[in-house]
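Chapter summary example: a protein plus phosphoenolpyruvate.
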Amino acid sequence: MNVPQAAREEIILKGFAAAPGIAFGPAYLYSKEAPLVEMKDIAREELEAEVQRLRNANARSEKELQKILAFAEQKLGAQNARIFEAQIMILNDEILMKAMEQRIAAELKNAEYIVADEIGKYRRRMLESPDEYMHERAHDVEDVMHRIIRNIRDQKLFSRLDGEAIIISETLTPADTVIFSRNQVLGYATDLGGVSSHAALLSRSLKIPAVVGLRSATRCVNTGDDIAIDGYGGIVAVNPSPATIERLRNTARRFREFEEQLVGMAELPAETLDHRSIELSSNIEFAEEIPFARIQGSAGVGLYRTESQLIGRGEYPGEDEQYEVYKSVADGVYPHSVIFRTFDVGGDKLMPDAVSEENPFLGWRGIRMMLDRPELFMAHLRALLRASVRKNVRIMFPMISSLHEVRRSKEYVEKAKKELKEQQIRFDEKTKVGVMIEVPSAALLADEIASEVDFLSIGTNDLIQYMLAVDRDNSYVAPLFQQFHPAVLRMIRMVIEAGHKKHVWVGMCGEMAGDPLATILLVGMGLDELSVVPPVLPEIKKIVRSIRHREAKRIAEKALSLQTAEDVKKFLTDVMKQKLPEIPIEV
Ligand code: PEP
Ligand code: MG
């Protein structure tokens, strides 16, 4: 990278580390602001050329989108790439394209203006609809409109970003993250968003360093500025000073050396020095992630987010289509097992026929919606059960807040089994059924819930959000999202003890399971499984393999006796420094 000139002052922005790694490179400011379009008259002699500009721009836009589609299919699978198919369909809409050409001829106005006006009309109509899903699709229409306008102007599009860059943006959607990842993106830095947002999860899966919640990055950075991004410490330096560059290079070296020590870790068992085994599995959203999870030494999938199939769709996939996906995941993971979480839609997640809610995180989410839509739930459960023939499928319900919901969900499972039996369709009669503990009421009832299911998995992302009343995606309250909050730790311990009292396996699939600072504590508290994003798996395994369970228990007891999150964090940091100095922990 260029060494900053003395005149360019260094600006340090503090956010939250969302995906690990360090990168240096030029900024690319990604603004979703609409391009300014002026209305201009054209002469009759210019008409043919103007229409041709529009046609060329459409053709170029389609070519770009086809490339993005192919890439997204390869990265995310065909179903999840549909969002881009929908955009291509807009471009292929002959009636719309003809209408625009006719208006250029009739009104003798410039092509950009006609595109903005004509497609803008569609968009406005979609935004006026009470249907949340139409609002989402309105963004697609808007994206297509901007793409055509930029191509008419022959302007550079982000999908044609040349060379390497660090993307600076107000927010990033999962789709943006995918589009950019086909370029040589070195890192992502956003003003908004939390570390457990879905775009952040995706950058971790794509192994691209990311820092979120920087608040003012888009105001401080211009395209081309030198940037250093620290995805371990949650820092972005604009025009970094030689001292900052040096410091970050040292950090990067330390992590690299540590990563070298992790080579070969995948083949070793995940057990403590005194031979207590911990299942280390992966959180994934797409079947395409399975090979990497295997390379990382994953013992199966501890959380498969089935709702990832719904990206960019207007309707729920049918039973057969779902079955194909689940079967390929179950086959890919075999002989290990996979925990399929039933559709967890709502909140910040995708929902094909979404409703507008004042407070979606406290709204029609997860199991609540499934129990209200039995026809959807039954097709989903039948597809999951059909994928269970190799006996390695488990089913888990999200957002459970009462025993009544557990019982009703299980009734649907039984009903689905009965139907399959009657139709002589094969499935594993003993498919294990479990509950995600992510709502405080369910945590308090863990004892009773454990009596009725085969396993529990603690979802700390939501459990912390609901316990501490802190929106997981809101950067303004991000410092209050404290996984080491004593109340959180005590609740986790309670759930583990309640589950074990009933001889039920207790895992954790929230992001806390993948935080190296938490590993000793979680092992000491007695969890049976940690399910983490695949990139961090070897590091977590190294920590598990470096301690005695007895000692981890003592450390957990001490941590649980402390009174503030800060005290717990400091205590665990000291433990790590003392016991595992080779593990680079950034606090
Ligand atoms: C959780 O809430 O901890 C969890 C793992 O689920 P998600 O992040 O998908 O809500
Ligand atoms: Mg959750």
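Key point: Residues 47-76 form the longest helix (30 residues).
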